């Protein structure tokens, strides 16, 4: 089991560029989510999905898009990167209903927007 | 709005000292609380969780947490810390009808030899 994988590990973008952060899990988890981690602010939920074809917004969704075409993959898209999106991004997955279930986190993507 | 508060942002302890990290939650309904840890250079992993029952919850690596409903608190404790406990600790609770996990701002713990 690879668990939750994320690519790339590091990325530098210029303002206005677009990119997709990849996330995949091999545990057949229904629930997947994206967080950003910023100093002094903890982790903030960007978007989440409770299954293929179903996504919803979290706490800080502006500037980000997601889709969930398969159970395994949950990519995060930045359509027009801004310096405020400089952060570390974590993908996580769990059994459906994160109320009771442990979240499994990926290793993170460190993104810098110049 | 529901929120999780961690008031200790940086804690420095000597090995063998006792640890208590504060966490206060605000959600007044059914509580589902977690503590996660992030060791340097690693991803977050679960330390312990509370849903119901015994308010004293035991987790991995000798950590425990006590749920006190009257104080809206879920403080993390360890009787004797080790250098390897140096990490960032996050308290979190489930909100939004069960589909959203809200994290506190984290506590950076440094254990000195």
Provide a descriptive summary of the structure in words.
The complex is a heterodimer of chains A (114) and B (113). Chain A is mainly beta and 114 residues long. Chain A has strands at residues 4-7, 10-13, 19-25, 31-38, 42-51, 54-57, 64-66, 76-78, 87-94, 104-105, 109-113. Chain B has strands at residues 4-5, 10-14, 19-21, 24-25, 33-38, 45-50, 56-58, 64-68, 73-78, 87-95, 100-103, 107-112. Chain B is mainly β. Chain B is 0% helix and 50% strand. In chain B, strands 2, 5, 6, 10, 11 and 12 form a six-stranded mixed sheet that branches. Chain B has a four-stranded antiparallel sheet with strand order 3-9-8-7, with no helix packed on it. The A-B interface holds A 4, 31, 33, 35, 40-45, 48, 50, 56, 58-59, 90, 92, 97-100, 102-103, 105-108 and B 6, 9, 32, 34, 36, 42-46, 49, 51, 90, 92, 94, 98-106.
Described by the principal axes of the CA atoms, the overall outline of chain A is: globular
Please tally the helical runs of chain A, counting DSSP H or I stretches of 4 or more residues: 0
**DSSP helical segment count of chain B:** 0
Extract low-pLDDT stretches of chain B. none
Give the amount of beta strand of chain A, in percent: over 45%
How large is the radius of gyration of chain A?
A: 13 Å
Radius of gyration of chain B: 13 Å
Structural class of chain B: mainly beta
What series of H and E elements makes up the topology of chain A? EEEEEEEEEEE
Helix content of chain A: under 10%
Oligomerization state = heterodimer
Number of DSSP-assigned strands of chain A: 11
Q: Total strand count of chain B, please? A: 12
Largest interface: A-B, 27 and 24 residues
């Amino acid at each position: 089991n690879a668990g939750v994988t994320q690519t790339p590990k590091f990325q530098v973008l210029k303002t206005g560029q677009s990119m997709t952060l990849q996330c995949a899990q091999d545990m057949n988890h229904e629930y997947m989510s994206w967080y950003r981690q910023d100093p002094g602010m903890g982790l903030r939920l960007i978007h989440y999905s409770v299954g293929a074809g179903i996504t919803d917004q979290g706490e800080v969704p502006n500037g980000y898009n997601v889709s969930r075409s398969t159970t395994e993959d949950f990519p995060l898209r930045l359509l027009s990167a801004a310096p405020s999106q400089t952060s570390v991004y974590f993908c996580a997955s769990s059994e459906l209903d994160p109320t009771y279930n442990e979240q499994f986190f990926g290793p993170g993507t460190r993104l810098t927007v110049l | 709005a529901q929120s999780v508060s961690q008031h200790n942002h940086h804690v420095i302890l000597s090995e063998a000292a006792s640890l208590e990290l504060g966490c206060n939650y605000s959600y007044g309904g059914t509580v589902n609380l977690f503590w996660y840890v992030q060791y340097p250079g690693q991803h977050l992993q679960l330390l312990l969780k509370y849903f119901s029952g015994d308010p004293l919850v035991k987790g991995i690596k000798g950590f425990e947490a006590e749920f006190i409903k009257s104080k809206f608190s879920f403080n993390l404790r360890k009787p004797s810390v080790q250098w390897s406990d140096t990490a960032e600790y996050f308290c979190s609770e489930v909100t939004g009808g069960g589909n959203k996990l809200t994290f506190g701002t984290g506590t950076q713990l440094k254990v000195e030899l």
